[in-house]
Structure prediction request, 727 residues.
Amino acid sequence: MQERLASSFDPFVLPYTIGLVFILTYLFIALIRVVKALPNDDKFKLLKHIFSLKIFKSGWEIFMECLLHRKIWKKNWTLGYMHTAFAFGWFLLIIWGHLEVNIFAPHRLNLPWYPIFFRYFMMETETTLQGSFFFFMMDLTLLYVLSGLVLAIYKRFRRKAFGMKRTTKLRWNDQVAMYALWAIFPLRFLAESFYSEISGGSFLTAGVGSIFHWFYNFTENEIYIRPIWWAYSISLGVFFIMLPWSRYTHILSEPLFIIMRNAGIREEHRNSGYGKVEIYSCSRCGICLDPCQLVSVASLRDSAAINYTRHLRLWKSAKAHQAASTCLMCNRCTKACPVGVDTAALKLNTKHELVNLHTEKQYDYLNTSVKDISTPLNALTLSGAEATDVDVIYFAGCMTHLTPATKLAMTKILEASGERFNFIDAEGSICCGRPVLLAGARKSADELIKKNTELFNQIHAKTLVTSCPICYKFFKENYALNMRVLHHSQYIQELLKIGKIKINPTTAKIVFHDPCELGRNSGVYDEPREVLKSVGQLQSTAYDGDESLCCGHSIAAEALPYRKRRVMSDDVVEKLTTNNPDILATACPACKKAFSETNKIEVKDLAEIVAENLV
Amino acid sequence: MINFGYKRNESATLDLDVDNSELYKKLLKEEPSAATCISCGTCASTCSTGQFTDFNLRKIMLLCKRGDTQSLEPIINRCMLCGKCQFACPKGLNTRHIVLILNKHLHAGKIS
Ligand code: SF4
Ligand code: SF4
Ligand code: SF4
Ligand code: SF4
Prediction:
């Protein structure tokens, strides 16, 4: 290997170099702005993480996710191969290029364009074959990237082959960046092939180069093939300059996102730097489109996670708010997202920025004594010693009062079990506070949390059982209670296990619908299934566990019109009843109400099925 | 006294000389389902807040239609947004959204 030209510069390197300087400057400024926007305790967390051994874990994750795209492989092999070919292949090309300069022209390491246009400036000598290893690796890697490119083009026409029904609709900026990216590798391939007669090459470039040479002897008239180096350099420059304004920003932000996430930073502070990094880490891959029922069933594509992050990037806060307030917060998209963008948390913040209900007087009625307002409720104060010495507090939840069969069933089960219990909201209650939080009013939710906590903690019970998954999630995660919190499905399973209740098994064929708040959002999948298995024949469906659908009546989507909710519920019932079960069971009053309205099949809460078959 | 589950309200005068339907128009624009309310009162009879106060969504819809923003303003944010009314409403109104929109316009700039 030796230098072919005395000069280490040629004007065609300029577009690339300008692009590179631009993108590095951009990255530096963005990094400073992001870190500056972090609250102080988060800055501290970040520093602590960077200087601890855990940074290696982040490094490994960056390697696995940003370069190898492990999560996309899990979804679909072809899609995974395509993404990896671009990311890991390009990364390898950069590594080989730098190694070559390091070994053969170390004095040129300070020139950023040298590794990229190595084959223009350097040539293989007759006598040594030192370079052949790198020539071979370069060609192999280039072939790898080009195979990914072929797949990417194919995907634009036939996305079904990649396991996707829908894919991203590209804006002009994304298109410019994408075509620039697509152009980089074929142009590099052409440039190096034309030059293979001059500077050498391996099986790919030298092979194709000799065919070109057969047509015309370019080595004599180098001037004709110089434009191809220009085109290669320009495509790189354009890609770098479009990078911050396109979906490819994620190449820069995703590693930082992983580091911040592993440092324990979460999107709790409004407008924190973390949120920005998270939004820009969305690669607009479109994987979240298919799982979202708003897209597939309700034709509200604008509300999908992928479009919500775009509204935020473009500062369209009205549109972002609209998307946030029609989103079911079912988290089907978050589970599918290969980057781990938690759009539900971001959406809550969008709402929080725009909604405020709280005033001094808002919930002042919570502190008036019951007598003052002459209501017969025990929900705000507890009277009588009998109520405070129990094993279990049963809190049906607001919504369960609209599906009274569930609360009657629970009373029957509790009585049969012999547990001492206090049905604390038998005559009404105040809300747990999650619905108001999901609407964006955190301060208001805090007041309800405070009042409920006071009430529950006055009773010395071991367990709080609720029939509403929304209350369950909130009691468990946002309350500091002196007792454990169970959803009634978990509690019934426990009673069955320790033999406090017994049931007569039936032959009814049952399908279970996992409520979002209980399943995906709280991770309770097994207990309800165990209960149902002991009482009937539980059929499995394609929508079990993490794949479960949203009933469409989520309390989070305050702006979602009723008819859209209905189409979603009908669709879910349709999908769950393909095997003709006798009963569609669920464990949430909202799901029950949503499904009952379709009038297609008997819908029951699992507590009802158990109560009917108690020994 | 027998509790019939509802309270009598003070009598009020309906002033047809003043037409202030601005708020109602804004509401209809942002939540068109508001137009379909039939004043059945199902929402009010199931209301969680209604157990403790005289908060009454049916009445709120009427006050809004009449343009009586003065009476609305102090009470609109008392709702706990629990969603019972939304599940009960026979016309499928997005009741929680209605409360949020009215609150936004009535309290714009007034609460921190
Ligand atoms: S949110 Fe996740 S799944 Fe959806 S487009 Fe962005 S990166 Fe892809
Ligand atoms: S949380 Fe559910 S409804 Fe909302 S964007 Fe994600 S998949 Fe769609
Ligand atoms: S239940 Fe619905 S239709 Fe009836 S008064 Fe209330 S909002 Fe109107
Ligand atoms: S959402 Fe508000 S108006 Fe509706 S039932 Fe609950 S507290 Fe009452």
About this structure: The pocket of iron/sulfur cluster (ligand 3) is lined by residues B 37-43, 57-58, 61, 89, 91, 93, 95 (CB under 6 Å). Chain B has one domain: 22-106.
